Every structure is written in C-alpha cells, then in structure tokens.
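User: Good morning. I'm curious how magnesium ion would be positioned relative to this chain. Could you predict the structure with it bound?
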Amino acid sequence: MKKYLFIDRDGTLVYEPEDYQVDALDKVKFLPHVIPALLRLQEAGYSLVMVSNQDGLGTESFPLETFTPAHELILNTLESQGIDFEQVLICPHKPEDHCECRKPKLGLVQAYLNDPSWERSSSYFIGDRATDLAMAQAMGITGLKVGDGSNQSLTWDGIVATILQGHNASAPRVAHVVRNTRETKIDLTVDLDHSGESHIDTGIGFFDHMLDQIATHGNFNLTVKVDGDLKVDGHHTIEDTGIALGTALKQALGDKRGIGRFGFVVPMDEVMAQVFAVSADHLVTINEQAQVAAAPATESEDHNITVALDISGRPHCEFELNAEFTREDINGFETQMVSHFFESLAVAMGLTLHMKVTSGNAHHQVEALFKAFGRALRPALKVVGTELPSSKGTL
Ligand SMILES: [Mg+2]
Ligand SMILES: [Zn+2]
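Assistant: Good morning! Here's the predicted structure, ligand included:
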C-alpha cells in the first residue's frame, strides 16, 4: 500500500523569514539535513506531497513575481538531488478569506482523503506549526513537529529515526527484565538505540567480559546485575542471564518492524570462510571469500568462527564444536556453559542460531564466539526500513 509524507514548506523545508514571506532568493535557506532525510524516506517507500499556506499569494501584499523565483529555487534544488514531490498544494488565501483550503482545513488534501488506497497508519504530516499538527489529526495520520529538537520538535535526523523505527516510533527500543528465582536475582536492561555504555556485573569476571563483547559488537547498551548462587557454581548465573538477555532483546524489538532480522558473520583472521545465510525455513551454505573485517583481529590463532542467526520467532540453536574446548574452565567460567548460554538465549529470544568454531586456545574460542555473535546480531537488530521483514506478515 502507498504511504505518504505530507510536508509543509516554510519553517519545515526552508527556514521561515521574520516577515513570514519567502519572497526573495536570498531568503531561501534549507533546514539542516533536510535533503538526505527526504532521500532516505523516499528510499523507504514514501511518496511526498507539499502542503503550504502562502497568505495572500497573488495579491499586492505577496505578488507572484516575488514568490515564484524563490519557490522554484526550492523545488529545483530538491529535484536536482533526486527528491520528487508528487504534488505541490498551495492555499493562496488569507485567514479572512475563510476559504476551505487554508490549513488546517482539509480542502487541499481532499482528493487524498477520498482515496482509500493509501495506508493512513504509516503516513505522516510533517510541519513546524500547531496548524500542521492539527491538520495531521484531522486527516487521521500522525503529525511530526519539525524544529531544532527542543520543545518536543524533531530535527530532520530525528524525523527519519522516528519514521523508520516503525509505527511505534516514539517508543524507544529499551527493555528492562527483572528475574528472581531461588538461584539467581537478575536485573537487566537493553537499549538497542544507544551503545558504548554498558555496565555488567554477574560476579563472574570472564563472563562479564564475554557479555560486554556481545553488547559492544552488537552495538547496543547492556546493563546487568546478577546476584547468583556462585557458591554452588556458575551454571545458574550463566544460564539465567542468557534467558534474561534473550527475553529483553525480544521485548525491546517489539513488533520487529523495520529490523534487519538476519545476521551472519565470519572470522577474525581467515580469508576463507563459510557463510550461512539463514532464511526462514532452510539453511543455505555458501562458500566465498570472506569480506567481513570484524573487530581488529587480536587473535593470532587460526580460529574459524561462523555465526548465523535469524530473529525468526522459531527458537533453534545449532552449536557445532569441531574440537573440544582445550580447557574446561576459564577463571570460574566453565566452557561447557557456552552452548548452554546461547541455547537459553535463543529460546528466550525466538532466535534461529547456528554457531560453529574450530579448535584453538579455549579463551580465544569462547571470546571469538561471543564477539561473532554480537557482530551477527548487529545488522539483525538494526532498523533498516519500516516494513515487517517477513512474507508471512508476522515474526
Ligand atoms: Mg510552516
Ligand atoms: Zn485557501
């Protein structure tokens, strides 16, 4: 279904002058980032319609000769950059004319309102004034206020982020999970739209380091505090943290609209790698030259790590270890818990997950798996559009 962005002109695409009239070429000044923003929104499938009040246009107070060159400069500049307005709708009247087309009245967009073929729920009215928001409301679509980011207004970057994060756009992709059992007490938060500030304390130093790899390479913030029965061993702490993390990631993704969904990653060092492309129901194996430069390779061993994942809603974890971990324990972290952790996480998150690692130093094997998992997660979590990435209409 078609979706529209109805966009005001003055104060929205170009700055509004103090006398409210863009009637000279030197009064044409675009808002920051408006052009890349419109290009991205156009790429995401939106059609654009300009809707503008130009008080008294064509009268002595605002003759066409002064309006037209500036208006054309605006349109030509946008067009030269690939921005295509389907229609430019202008009300030339003054308030006292009591016309039917002056925003927020609906005359200008009546033809659109009569057309049932476009999707109201994913269309927007974008403008800088209360009348634009009133217009949105009257049209039954979402209104977004453009501005410098203060007073509940959005910059054009903010508009793009809001629209492309899907319909519940204003909802931040954050989830907080509290999980208390007799064995563990967990307080965990993920914030998928911010990164670089994780706080991790599970009581197992090496495990903290591993969780930090997931957050860092997955490009999200993870705050977790675990109070577990470490006097027994790390088993419950690691397993339950996997469940809590999977649950939080699933919650934060919401209806998953717009996300990349799939992720795959190949190794730290090697040139030749297997890439698994996981689709909803089958697994395809492709052999190709690895192009992916993951984090700067610090491992010197010959590890070959493959992680492929799909946020499918159908939990499945395939963990393949070509050789045993060379150690059973890394500073209180039992290596047999690695697969257990990822299985718990995959089940809680609804993740189809394939992981494979070759032999080598145990610390490196484990660390590479966590890093690779984060790397595979990164494109899958990222918002890349507005559609639900599934032909079934649900994920
Ligand atoms: Mg305006
Ligand atoms: Zn009018």
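DSSP finds nine helices and 17 strands in the chain. The two ends are 20 Å apart (CA to CA).
Let me know if you'd like a different ligand tried.
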